[in-house]
Amino acid sequence: MDGGEARRLFERFRLELWHDRHWDSEFTPSPHAPGAALRDLVGAGPAAAPLLVGALDDADLRSWACLGLEWLGPAAGDAAATALADRATARLDAWREAAVALDAVAPARARALGVHRWPETMERLTDRHLARGATAHVERFLAEESGEDVVRFLAQHRLRDWIIRDRPPAVMRALRGLPALPSAAEILVMAGDPVTAAHIDALCHGDGPLAPGLVERLAAHPASDRLVPRVTARPGTADALWNLVMRRRCAGLTTDPAPLRPFLRACVADPPARRPGPRFGAAVPSTVAWLGDEAMLVHLLPMLREDRLGPPEWHAAVAAVTSFAGGAALLEDHARRHPDVERLRWALDAVAAFRRPRLEDADDAFLRGRIESTLGGAFTAYAAVLLGRPSAPAAFQLAWIDRAFGAPVTADRVAWIRGLGFTDDGFLAELSEPVERPLEGLRLQWDAGEPGHDPARAARAAAAGLPSLARRWLRDDTLEAAAGAHLARVHRAAPPPP
């Protein structure tokens, strides 16, 4: 295309941009499309480059000019690369946009300047590569850079989401070559890589609270108790501690309560007004129950006297008392020493009327595909059954759900389930085999929201051994039948006690 046609398209773009900026209706969207006009200009090829380079000196046009040169890519030529490099290195107006455009026009020159490492442009460049296929960019960055640059690079949310979702083989290999880096371990674990002691050791040294999604995936590993110091390093993390202790117990693992008592006593001593919220308040008694620490139960009973104790904390404290054989007697003794506190009489009545969780309710949640929902999920329902009394069906189902999400099902865990009375050795052998591709990301995102139509998600869930979860995303009667057959086999292998 000749220069005259490129000039005409450039003027059309300027006019379209002017009209768009001066559109004065608050209620009607602008009918003008400067972006489309810029696309037409870029379609003129190299003839558009001098016009766009000249527009870099116009305050109203320079950001658009950078975008046009980015779209034009290497066809923009050396003069455009020089102009963009000068603007980027001098930190002139729109220098960030110029740096991103330089990466498109002259990638080698941009890399020589270190544009990909600049904190101000790193995310923009990554987003640009994500839109075009980021494997080569990410692999090269991890191979050539180090230190804080890699930490900052792997902290980008959209990059992490892409790796966890797509698991590009080259990138996964590169991350596995960084075993001591907490951010690399986080991504590998959330992507469904088999959890190892090396992952846990790396995450022991990470900064900030441990994300719930990581706790869910790490807790079933025998070495996960090494995470306790990080989980309890900051106030307000009782819910993370509960999540860790509960999931360890569901995997047949015990946690030493002695190092946790000072942390839990401090949590109980905090008045309700200072607690982060009901979830935190409920986590403290729940943690005591899952630890099975009757020595700590004595310190928990004063919570039941608090006037501002909300329903979640109240129910959790009552459930904790009922989980101990001597819990009711301890509460009665406490109530005798505080006869004027009416709430303690209510607590005694609640303990006497407490209804233990039923296996049937957990099975119902499983059949509905509510696997890891925050409320009413099968995992927490089976866990509640297991807390009340040993249950082979509940223990097996908890391991089966863990397996679908890539958590390790060790030989010791299988032996523990067998010791509870599970008799189907073939099913236990299947449980021991990891799924080919575990479900990645946050567990609760797989059954979040209303059921819909998503065949790809359904296929992933079915392949991971959760046909009832698959049925939430694909109305197929064979999936419902498969879920029912799975539960029937579980109950044949371990009939519930009378």
Q: What does this molecule look like?
A:
Helix 25 (378-388) runs antiparallel to helix 26 and helix 26 (392-404) runs antiparallel to helix 27 (411-419). The mean pLDDT is 89. It is built from 31 helices and no strands. It has helices at residues 3-21, 34-42, 49-55, 62-72, 77-89, 95-105, 107-113, 119-130, 135-144, 148-154, 157-166, 169-176, 182-190, 197-204, 212-218, 228-231, 238-250, 261-269, 278-291, 294-300, 311-322, 327-337, 342-352, 359-367, 378-388, 392-404, 411-419, 425-432, 455-463, 467-471, 477-493. It folds into 4 domains: 1-115, no CATH class; 133-208, no CATH class; 228-352, no CATH class; 359-493, no CATH class. The protein is elongated and about 95 Å long. The protein is mainly alpha-helical.
How much is the radius of gyration in Å? 29 Å
What is the count of distinct domains?
Answer: 4
- Major sheet details: none
Beta-strand content bin: under 5%
In quaternary terms, these chains amount to single chain
Secondary-structure content class? mainly alpha
Got a strand count? 0
Distance between the termini: 85 Å
> If helices are DSSP runs of H or I spanning 4 or more residues, what is the number of helices?
31
Global mean pLDDT: 89
Stretches where pLDDT falls below 50 for ≥5 residues? none
Shape: elongated
Fraction of residues in H or I helices: 55-70%
